[in-house]
């Protein structure tokens, strides 16, 4: 039986991790996978996470199962962090999941149970795992225009024109903030226009929020999501705590469904618990418990927010430094978009050949579509990257 298997296509992002590891050059620079790194190249355990782990070790008396949908206190804390009361709690159903990817998987599972014919609309481009999971599940998908290659901003007219084709019951996947892979994001008035369009077509928004706090701030990064939640009857959310709590390997995420009416909440909740049971039974708890402790303890929360804010500002400083150095070297403002983009990623707009040249000749690793992880830089490597970009003719 096993001889019938074929090799699966390699994940372009994860492939880079190995290539980078295998490169013996000491001068190599990793701008690949979306993991935050400080100036020394370390992905630190956040102070509040360490403190919560210590407390948990003291007080935890059992590791028995929680609930199929995870601990309700985690759902409550995450709903407040994400939605801040934009929707009454009696319309919310939620389930803890292994990371944001688990949440995406369960949200799509919910769509499959409710409307197997739905087309999932994806931004062009999007995180490669989105179409990969949708294809694996045998669901339909379509693209909407998103990134404008010339301005490196959002092609908003194209986006609206394409989304006008979505039908009632289709699902439109949107990145709440820090768009992956481009770094180009919607303004609040643009979110409002998307909400109007979705209200008209009856297509349902599905918001992937994996970088809350990495763009303009915790509240600012959820503003578009909250606007949609406040205006539309139905909404799906896949949220990740990997990045903003720095707990990547703990696999901590949550899927949230907003129902039109409180009467529907119980059956939606039941379906989410069912989906967990069918895929992995109980979701992981350790990371979720740490997040709950941090969000509910004022001192831990304040410290977490302060450290997250430092991380966010560090990425902004790197963006500005890179844009300034490129302005100096190129004598033009054509890289100004780097300072406008938000989050960990920016799409540079280089050709695959130029990306390859950067890797081969300069030991600079970025994803083949020229997505750079800004957090992979530091004050020393910003000028090195800028010079390599210019030398490569980008
Ligand atoms: C990324 O886009 O680099 C991250 O979300 C990590 C991943 O799993 O791809």
List keywords for this structure.
394 residues, alpha/beta, Aspartate Aminotransferase, domain 2, 2 domains, seven-stranded mixed β-sheet, two-stranded parallel ribbon, 14% strand, binds (2S)-2-hydroxybutanedioic acid
List low-confidence stretches. Answer: none
Query: Could you state the oligomeric state of the chains shown?
Result: single chain
Number of strands: 13
What does the radius of gyration come to? Answer: 21 Å
CATH class of the largest domain: Alpha Beta
Shape type? globular
Distance between the termini: 49 Å
Order of helices and strands: HEHHEHEHEEEHEHEHHEEHHHHEHEEH
Fraction in beta strands: 5-15%
CATH superfamily of the largest domain: Type I PLP-dependent aspartate aminotransferase-like (Major domain)
| Structure annotation, total helices | 15
Report the CATH topology name of the largest domain.
Answer: Aspartate Aminotransferase, domain 2
């Amino acid at each position: 039986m096993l001889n019938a298997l074929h090799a699966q296509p390699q994940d372009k992002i994860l492939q880079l991790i190995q290539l980078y590891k295998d490169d013996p050059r000491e001068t190599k620079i990793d701008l690949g996978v979306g993991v935050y790194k400080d100036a020394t190249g370390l992905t630190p355990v956040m102070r509040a996470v360490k403190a919560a782990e210590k407390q948990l070790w003291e007080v935890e008396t059992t590791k028995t199962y929680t609930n199929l949908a995870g601990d309700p206190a985690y759902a409550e804390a995450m709903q407040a962090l994400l939605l801040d009361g934009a929707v009454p709690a009696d319309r919310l159903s939620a389930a803890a999941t292994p990371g944001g990817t688990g949440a995406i998987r369960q949200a799509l599972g919910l769509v499959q149970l409710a409307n197997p014919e739905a087309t999932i609309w994806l931004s062009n481009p999007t995180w490669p795992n989105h179409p990969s999971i949708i294809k694996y599940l045998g669901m339909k998908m379509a693209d909407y225009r998103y990134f404008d290659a010339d301005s490196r901003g959002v092609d908003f007219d194209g986006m609206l024109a394409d989304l006008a084709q979505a039908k009632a019951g289709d699902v439109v996947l949107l990145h709440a903030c820090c768009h992956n892979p481009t770094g180009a994001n919607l303004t609040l008035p643009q979110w409002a226009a998307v909400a109007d369009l979705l209200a008209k077509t009856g297509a349902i928004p599905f918001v992937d929020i994996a970088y809350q706090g990495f763009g303009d701030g915790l509240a600012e990064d959820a503003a578009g999501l909250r606007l949609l939640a406040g205006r539309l009857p139905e909404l799906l959310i896949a949220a990740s705590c990997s990045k903003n709590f720095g707990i990547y390997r703990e696999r901590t995420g949550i899927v949230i469904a907003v129902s039109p009416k409180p009467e529907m909440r119980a059956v939606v909740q039941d379906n989410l618990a069912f989906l967990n049971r069918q895929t992995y039974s109980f979701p992981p708890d350790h990371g979720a418990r740490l997040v709950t402790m941090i969000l509910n303890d004022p001192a831990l929360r304040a410290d977490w927010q302060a450290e997250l804010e430092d991380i966010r500002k560090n990425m902004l400083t790197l963006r500005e430094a890179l844009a300034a150095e490129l302005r100096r070297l190129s004598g033009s403002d054509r890289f100004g978009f780097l300072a406008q983009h938000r989050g960990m990623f920016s799409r540079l707009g280089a050709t695959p050949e130029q990306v390859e040249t950067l890797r081969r000749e300069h030991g600079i690793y970025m994803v083949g579509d020229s997505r750079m992880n800004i957090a992979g830089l530091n004050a020393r490597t910003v000028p090195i990257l800028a010079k390599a970009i210019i030398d490569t003719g980008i």
